User: Fold this.
Amino acid sequence: MVDVYYIGGSSFSGKSTVAEILIEKYNLYYFKVDESFKEYIQKGKDIGLEFCSKFAEMSFEESQLRSPEIQFADKINLYKEIFCFILDDLSQMKCRGIITESTAYLPELMHCFDIPYDRFVSLTPTEEFRIANYKKRNYSFPFPGVCSDMEKVFSNWLQYDILLTQEIQKQCINFNYLSFENDGSMSIYKLAELIADHFHINW
Assistant:
């Protein structure tokens, strides 16, 4: 059976950087859920799933100018619809071990699908770290398009991501999963070491 290690959490928390450190050190395969996201949405639309269909049919502007609360609720429901597609892809991979990271890995879903405590960890950023990390990257990220009010798009996204972070932290407590809040005070290598220890990978 393939060993799969899941890293969940919200944007700009260090998920992908930690994953890259672990795959290089332990020669694991890196499954990037984001690269298959559009495929999963289309697959869900093809079988009539409500939120996959909704996301497939919305333009970038329609999607991003909705209120943060609506974006948050819809995204949670979207993650629930596509989760089986992700697990199905993982189950078909022939690798020694897999590191995978995504905001779609909600603690509630991990619990529902019996993902063990020591195979999942969540990373969330403080507000200050989220903004600092965002500014280090291309300012178009995480927005794949443009619209008439990009300032509003950014404001909505920021409030959405705060809502998502709060929900993830709450779910980790409810379902007894390990969660790290990243404020940037710990080196990313030390954080990766702690996560490797949690996964019982020899550092």
